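Example record for the data management plan.
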Amino acid sequence: MRNSEKDYFNPSFSHIYVEKEVRSHPRARRILERFSRARVIEIDHYKDVFCRSRQNYILQQRSRKLILAANRGNRIYGGAPVCQSFGNENFYYTSCMMNCLYDCEYCYLKGMYPSGNMVIFVNLEDFFEDIREILKERSVYLCLSYDTDMMAVERITGYVEEWIRFVEEQVRQGRELKVEIRTKSADGRFWQQNDPVPGVIYGITLSPQAVIDAYEHKTPSLKQRIASAGEALAGGFSVRLCFDPMICLADWQRHYGEMLRQVFAEIDMQKLEDVSVGTFRVSQDYLKKMRRLQPGSAVVQYPYRNDGGVYHYSAELTEKMERFLAGCLREKMPEAKIFLWENKEKV
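Corresponding structural encoding:
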């Protein structure tokens, strides 16, 4: 008899599906070399695996498979209403990966994607060309990691470094490009091995340790994330702290207050690019699926309010939580650098 339920699952990335057309792509070859023991299966199109019917996202997360593909459709999208633009015009986002190594119970990806497996698009050159075309007409504020955590898989892909070089090239040529890379990763080696580049903002998401313990599975601790943010600031990188999404749990005010005390003790708030504050919100269609997949999750089954197809806390609770956090932040940093999702305007 096996001693643990984990024994019933293969390790993640034990199998790698590769589109035939990209098998010889340099990025695909580089990634495959990192998983020399994986079983490689050629496919015609990533959707044949990723979008097949009757998949179970939660079970697949226990033994993720990797899919290497090319994105031949739309690659650049207008910024979503539930996301913050931080006062930037021409707000876009892109997804050169689908799904995340981490397992946050409240993550909307569980409601958006049919599969818990991870897709990596290897044709970054096409993403870059799309951005070049837009930059011919206007400035661009681009979020790179809403549908994944690029930093968490950087040692596998090297994509963050490639995007950095691309931004550096565009800025050097006089184009107005700014990108945000949001992460819960805390790999300090990245800050040691790379240099800060104008136009690249690293958005580090922070949560109270109680939220991390309850809902943010497989992610670094609050202490580790704060230390990573401090190291990035010390290295001259542009850092945004993201207190988003705020999650309501028992005695939430004490937990968020303690989190901020730790942040203020370790971080020079005056050096930050800015901060983001926002309570949990999610599309009604995504939440419906998330509830079906996670019937025992307190954060998913919470009785949210539906407002125009978006589920969120009541207006009273949203106001109380966001104003509490923003009020504490005002004591340590300029008000103009505090952004609330509530109305997408500065506090």
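Summary line stored alongside the record: Confidence is low (pLDDT under 50) at residues 343-347.
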